[in-house]
Amino acid sequence: MATTHHIDAGGQAIRVAKDLRVPMRDGVELAADVYSGTEDRPRPALVALSPYGKELQALALTMPPQRRPSPMWDGCIEAGDIARIVKEDYAHVIGDLRGSGASGGEHIGNYNAGGVSLGQDAYDFIEWVAEQPWCDGNVGMVGISYFGSMQVLAAAERPPHLKAIFVSGGHYDFYETTYHGGVMWFMPRAAREGRGGDSGWAFTDQTKSRMLETYPPDKLQKLVAARLADPDVAAWPNLVHVLNYPKHHEAWFDIVMNELDGDWYEERNPITLAPNIDIPVYLQIDQGRGWTMDGTIELFDALKGPKKLDIGPYPPMQSRPFIEEHDKMFRWYDYWIKGIDNGIMDEPEVSVFVEGSREHVTGSAWPPKDVEYRPLYLRPRRKLSPDAEPMGAEYAAPDGFYQAPLTVTDKVEILDWSTDAFTEPTELIGTGAAHIFAEIDQEDTNFILRLWDNAPNGKRQLVTTGYLKASHRELDDRTTEGNPHHPHTRAVPVEPGRIEEYVVRLYPFATTFLPGHRLTVELSNDEPLADEHNALLPPDSFHLPVGRPVTHKIYRDAAHPSRLVLPFTRRSAG
């Protein structure tokens, strides 16, 4: 039952309307809370929608923001700074998606791809908000991650009263969110189940599996058996459990069962829907979360209307409750919703924070500067050099490592190669590629690359990452120099003992290597259990380890020029 009361938030009086019922076109009702000033007049509204539960979002009023690695950090408190939004004279409307929280209805699969479109629900929700006496008919949206993805899904439906959106840290192409280079990422499990720093979805009933609803039991049993035949899957207890007991977590079951890209992921891919968006869109993402930077840039390129791309500094994880980026958001909404000419549209479309130099670089596209792709070759004695290796493999013998599965060891083997110290500032902005000539003794493995900026004082900072499952090595026609793309539509087993060239996509980044610093690239087939970067992420932000013992030989001789191909800006001398 809806109730209204006032609260005091740091000396600011806020009117709270709880448990309003918002009707959808199919008769289902969603639940919403509204926070606003106490003056009885209409004002613009900022809508936040997710399955994480509106009650959890209310902690923004009582919990000081937590940064990783605080154990109090909860990745699902993402709807924004309630008190700040009210202070800026907006109504903050926080709603539970169907099948979650206090809302009705059921949720099938991810983004409700097996049920009513979440974009359709967002349309109905936004239009209902615009008609309320406390709203002046102008609506924007707020929130990061899932809340950000909901903004894109909503905008693609073109609700008439949605004037603009501001998206920070959204997730878009759902395959690329859950399989990095074909390697399964566990973060979606954490966000849904509630593990490792996330409360998870606020289910009203278990989210239904699209796979269970689509396939007859005998067919599904065969599909599950085929998935369990993957030794990586068979070695990981959580995956064995969910495949045998899918009712335990049906949404995660669907992800595990769909390890290849295709229609299952593309049906409601926000990037696929982006050409339908005609309202102004501001996209913000911080460095260090390479996969979301890739999707954010891809979304930016697909948009046709007024738009901004803002890439912020490392580290990757914002506070929870989420409070960052609000200054930028209110400038955006003050212009597009309140009609205040604050000059924001006179500024460049693209702004990128460059690590190292700590500069902001602006332009009209990504990357914001002209770049020249240049190689750095893997050389003997763990060197990276702009000069290729002149000797053959009989003299420049391959590097190598044997990785036992993590069921029998805690040690992750890592090879690394480093440049000499840079003698002048050297700026790189864009995507990159790693061409790795490798021989393995199994049908599959992972290639995990991480680039670091090593300072003279021994400290280091992650620059970018790249992932590729060896059986997903095929490239598609989008591939250009330094910018590889893989279709991920089939897995082709590797012939053991054969040397193959693996081209790994290095996610977008922007950094300047200062004099005295070195660039180091690390190669492994699993992730280290803890290091300087992983400590900044939730505990479940790692990838499915390889479940079989694999010996890797990494060739980097005259006939096998293993190398990085990196985006040096024109001002750089190298």
UniProtKB/TrEMBL annotation:
Pfam families named among the record's database cross-references: Peptidase_S15, PepX_C
MF term (GO), any: hydrolase activity
Xaa-Pro dipeptidyl-peptidase C-terminal domain ranges (all copies): 330-565
Cited NCBIfam families: CocE_NonD
Source species taxonomy: Bacteria, Bacillati, Actinomycetota, Actinomycetes, Micrococcales
Keywords: Hydrolase
InterPro entries documented for this protein: AB_hydrolase_fold, CocE/Ser_esterase, Galactose-bd-like_sf, Xaa-Pro-like_dom, Xaa-Pro_dipept_C, Xaa-Pro_dipeptidyl-ppase/CocE
Name of the protein in question: CocE/NonD family hydrolase
Keyword check for Metal-binding: no
